[in-house]
Design goal:
The chain is an all-alpha fold and 196 residues long. It folds into 2 domains: 1-61 and 124-196, no CATH class; 62-120. The protein has 7 helices and no strands. The protein has helices at residues 2-28, 30-41, 46-54, 64-91, 96-120, 122-179, 182-195. It is elongated and about 125 Å long. The model has no long low-confidence stretch (mean pLDDT 84). Residues 1-20 form the signal peptide. Homotetramer; disulfide-linked. Homodimer. GO terms for molecular function: calcium ion binding; intracellularly calcium-gated chloride channel activity; volume-sensitive chloride channel activity. It is a multi-pass membrane protein. This is Protein tweety homolog.
């Protein structure tokens, strides 16, 4: 059992060392790792990834053109709907209810569009990414190195204990037999009987 625990402690030390090496490789270039892994497993364009990883004014928003076109389309629908309300309601009063319903749907669509624009902005996601990388590469690495150090010390201490245990057991066993001579045992037995 001692040898099993000894092998287990050195094995866990090896796993922790491998984890520390892997984490240090990741932390040397996290952006490159995320770019390579994401491109290998998805069909996401590198421009989109670069936009979210860098989040600087030098990298343009890849969705900007589509968002601008959508905003113009929503504005155009708003102006056409207002014009329709001005001209159609006096001639067709029954259409007012339908136009109000379309206006409500358009307002909901515009609200959802603004939420989409906010979600597509790189700032929030980039901040979360930077916080996660800092936590992993600074706090996580520090904790892993302390765990590695304490595992090394405990594995060395346990190895020393296992290696010295047979010799210590021999000494203990021989001293115990010397201290328990037959004459002392019989004397103790007589004392015990007389006390009864």
């Amino acid at each position: 059992m001692s040898f099993f625990v000894l092998i287990l402690s050195w094995g866990s030390l090896g796993l922790e060392t491998a984890a520390a090496v892997g984490l240090s490789d990741f932390c040397s270039d996290p952006d490159g790792f995320v770019l390579n892994l994401t491109q290998a497993q998805t069909e996401l364009s590198p421009e989109i990834l670069q936009y979210y990883l860098a989040c600087s004014q030098d990298v343009p928003n890849p969705f900007q053109q589509r968002l601008t076109m959508s905003q113009r389309a929503l504005s155009s629908i708003h102006s056409q709907l207002h014009g329709l309300e001005r001209e159609a309601i006096p001639q067709f009063p029954a259409a007012e209810r339908n136009l109000v319903s379309v206006q409500g749907t358009l307002n909901t669509t515009e609200s959802n569009f603004h939420q989409l624009v906010a979600l597509l902005n790189c700032r929030g996601l980039h901040k979360d990414y930077v916080d996660a990388v800092k936590g992993l590469c600074y706090d996580g690495m520090e904790g892993l190195l302390f765990l590695l150090l304490f595992s090394l010390l405990s594995a060395l201490a346990f190895t020393t204990a296992v290696c010295s245990l047979p010799r210590a057991w021999e000494r203990f066993h021989s001293r115990w037999h010397l201290s328990r001579s037959p004459r002392q045992e019989s004397k103790r037995f007589v004392q015990w009987q007389s006390s009864i």
